[in-house]
Design brief:
alpha+beta; Aminopeptidase; Alpha-Beta Plaits; 6-stranded mixed beta sheet
Length: 419
């Protein structure tokens, strides 16, 4: 364990930090919904999701926190009666077959911060708030970040409530049936905290591979998703290659060129072809149409624009040379989010005080923090993901890293309280 020095510094300030209790509680709570050999089964407002949320609320009430629910089903718990608020939190829902750490780590660590401050009799100038956001992943209802989006005023109530899952269940009905239909007066946009800090696993390999203790995102990258389609001629598998207008060839050529392009910009760009539809998708038929998406991510908007231009130019070139029809369209675009410079600096100083090796970085995944940044001064804290794995049953972060993140979060909350 490489956090003893940091732990001693915090305990010397009268803080009753208990890493063993935190790790035991994280292990217990994060296994709610865990299925051996499969991974996490905790979709938003499912039976397992409701179970862990009820567990959380019971513990919060035992601490003396005021627990309320907003109209998106977000859980908002407050300690203290006066002053502006400092909020921490994340989410407890998961992707199908995901890991135990994504989201849940930030909520359970936030609970431990509240417990530590309460037990240490620390008198804060701010109210301390823990938020568990609903449907962050978007695995049951699309798009992602619905809970924070509604509560922060990004989405309307009508839009969010009308979302339907694969089984035809409306978001509104699930809220009502599970008892998480809260009040709009509790929405974050009506009473935003002064600061919001989200602790999360990195969901990437940088911290782990480079030996850093903590990552400090400067913001969340922009994401643009485009859809491309090639149309050729459906034909029999017996046709000679020179006679074919194979739509799938267009995808293969574009994918190869795009990967080479992205590898040359590996620190600035991520591209993913994640959804492919081939028609007629039969073993002995030359594809007549292929339609696919490209997810483009960068912290530089110009790089995103340049990548789209590169993709389109290559698509047009392939279509011309192979006798195919080509079309493209934008599906959606989320602009990058820049975090508050004071919060980022406070996190950096908190790491330095605890003698943790930190790296300024970017978040390549979306988080509720990007919606919170619209209403609060926001920042994030990352801990290493072993081998960068996430959204997988193999997702894992070491105990010592879990504790380091907790200690940094606690130190940041106390520093922001004095600012």
């Amino acid at each position: 364990m490489r956090y003893e020095g940091a732990l001693e510094k915090l305990r010397a300030r009268g803080l009753k930090v208990n890493p063993e209790r935190f790790l035991a509680e994280f292990d217990r709570m994060s296994r709610i919904g865990w299925v051996e050999g499969y991974g996490m089964n905790r979709l938003a407002l499912s039976e397992n999701h409701v179970a862990i949320r009820m567990d959380l609320m019971e513990q919060l009430k035992a601490l003396g926190a005021k627990v309320k629910v907003d109209e998106a089903g977000n859980i908002i718990a407050e300690l203290g009666e006066q002053g502006e608020a400092i909020a921490v939190g994340s989410h407890l829902d998961s992707v199908p077959g995901g890991g135990r750490f994504d989201g849940a780590y930030g909520v359970i660590a936030g609970l431990e911060v509240l417990r530590t401050i309460k037990e240490s009799n620390v008198r804060l100038r701010h109210r301390l708030v823990l938020i568990d956001f609903n449907n962050e992943e978007g695995s049951r209802w699309s798009p992602p970040l619905l809970g924070s989006g509604l509560s922060c005023g990004v989405y309307t109530r009508d839009f969010v409530y009308s979302r339907v899952d694969r089984n035809g269940v409306r978001f509104e009905d699930a809220l009502r049936n599970t008892g998480f239909m809260g009040s709009p007066e509790n929405n974050i946009s009506f009473n935003p905290p002064r600061f919001y800090v989200e602790l999360h696993i990195e969901q990437g390999p940088e911290l782990y591979s480079k030996g850093y203790d903590i990552g400090i995102p400067q913001g969340i990258v922009g994401i643009r998703v485009v859809e491309l389609a090639f149309r050729g001629s459906q034909d029999h598998a017996s046709s000679p290659l020179w006679a074919r207008r194979d739509a799938l060839t267009g995808l293969v050529i574009v994918k190869n060129k795009l990967e080479e392009y992205a590898l040359e910009r590996v620190d600035k760009l991520r591209v993913t072809i994640g959804r492919v539809n081939v028609e007629p998708n039969v073993a002995n038929v030359v594809p007549g149409e292929v339609r696919f998406t490209v997810d483009i991510r960068s912290y530089d908007p110009n790089i995103i624009d340049e990548t789209v231009k590169y993709i389109v130019e290559n698509g047009e070139d392939v279509a011309r040379r192979r006798g195919l029809d080509f079309e493209h369209r934008d599906l959606w675009y989320i602009e990058r989010t820049l975090f508050d410079t004071q919060v980022v600096k406070t996190i950096e100083e908190a790491c330095e005080e605890l003698e943790f090796k930190c790296l300024k970085t970017w978040s390549w995944a979306g988080h509720d923090a990007q919606n919170m940044a619209r209403v609060s001064r926001t920042g994030m804290i990352f801990i290493p993901s072993v081998n960068g794995r996430s959204h997988s049953k193999d997702e894992y972060s070491r105990d010592e890293d879990l504790v380091k993140g907790l200690l940094v979060l606690l130190n940041v909350v106390l520093a922001l309280d004095s600012s």
